[in-house]
Sequence to fold (77 residues):
Amino acid sequence: MTLKELTQLAEQSWEGCDGCDENDKNFFINGFITGYNRSKPDDISDEEIEKEASKIHGVGYYAFSEGAKWYKKQLKK
Fold:
């Protein structure tokens, strides 16, 4: 999600409050964007997945490796 899209989402989520002003709204929007960005997982490389999968013996290696790669793709959607 781009910064512009995220800002629009934050603005749509702002409900205001009794006595709130533009500074309060900006504080909310900045916090919303920061929280969103922190909630996104760090990208894990396929090499890191393979390294962890190598610790598993037998059929579990392939299942773990392919499952982790699939899940990583789903998180990016």
The chain has four helices and no strands.
